Amino acid sequence: MSTASPLIIALDYASLDAALCMADRLDPSRCRLKVGKELFTRSGPDVIEALHGRGFEVFLDLKFHDIPNTVAGAVQAAAEQGVWMVNVHAGGGRRMMEAARERLDRRGLTMHLIAVTVLTSMEEADLAEVGISATPAEQVERLALLARDSGMDGVVSSAWEARRLKELCGADFLKVTPGIRPGFAAAGDQRRVMSPADAMSAGSTHLVVGRPVTRAEEPMEALAAIEAELAAG
Ligand SMILES: O=c1ccn([C@@H]2O[C@H](COP(=O)(O)O)[C@@H](O)[C@H]2O)c(=O)[nH]1
């Protein structure tokens, strides 16, 4: 089932059972689901099949970063499992991203293919430590333009960069933003955070929300509070 909701709930769980327990409380008309490294490493493609069986569209957040041929093969495998969206690291470079795009196009596979720019857990000092002497905003812009020119459908960034990315890359370019924190949630390990309503006003097209819902005492109430905030604008 496709949904008009911008919400993507991150199922960061250590077992398939725990992830499906949460999925069974959610409604595919109200959100999409994200499967990341922990859950996929534990459960493999079974989790994708189980979520599809429950009617959810799935963002497979494995952030592929490898040589072009390897990434193209991984992206093809994701598309053949029918996932709605997959991502690669823009830092893998133009040839890597182009190889992924070409592989999908040549096989007639349709799936959103996006690139991670700068992780929302990073700030300027973290970039400096890995040898990047730019602010997160500058680095996101640089990688987003490279991603667009390499055939990506959009990027993962924080919502702080969404407004500028809309100006640079247009409204149709997907701006998938984790680090979403409603007023009631702690930032935790995230650094570049924003509230759901502010993120949408800034130009995010999709909001990735994990712990504020999945670790809430009442996950459905937390989700409803986020939906109410979005509806109020
Ligand atoms: O830059 C990034 C890229 C991916 N993520 C993922 O999003 C969720 C966020 O979860 P929260 O619990 O809401 O912090 C998580 O699965 C990350 O792997 C990200 O946070 N930042």
UniProtKB/TrEMBL annotation:
Annotated pathway: Pyrimidine metabolism; UMP biosynthesis via de novo pathway; UMP from orotate: step 2/2
Family matches, as CDD domains: OMP_decarboxylase_like
Residues given in the record as substrate binding sites: 12, 34, 61-70, 120, 181, 190, 210-211
SUPFAM superfamilies in the record: Ribulose-phoshate binding barrel
Keywords for this protein: Decarboxylase, Lyase, Pyrimidine biosynthesis
EC number: 4.1.1.23
Gene Ontology molecular function, alphabetical: orotidine-5'-phosphate decarboxylase activity
Active-site residue list: K63
Top EC class for this record: lyase
Gene3D superfamilies registered for this protein in UniProt: Aldolase class I
Signal peptide annotation: none
Record-annotated Orotidine 5'-phosphate decarboxylase domain positions: 6-226
Catalysed reactions listed for this entry: orotidine 5'-phosphate + H(+) = UMP + CO2
Record-stated family: Belongs to the OMP decarboxylase family. Type 1 subfamily.
Known function: Catalyzes the decarboxylation of orotidine 5'-monophosphate (OMP) to uridine 5'-monophosphate (UMP).
Quaternary state and interactors: Homodimer.
This protein's name: Orotidine 5'-phosphate decarboxylase
Species of provenance: Halomonas aquatica
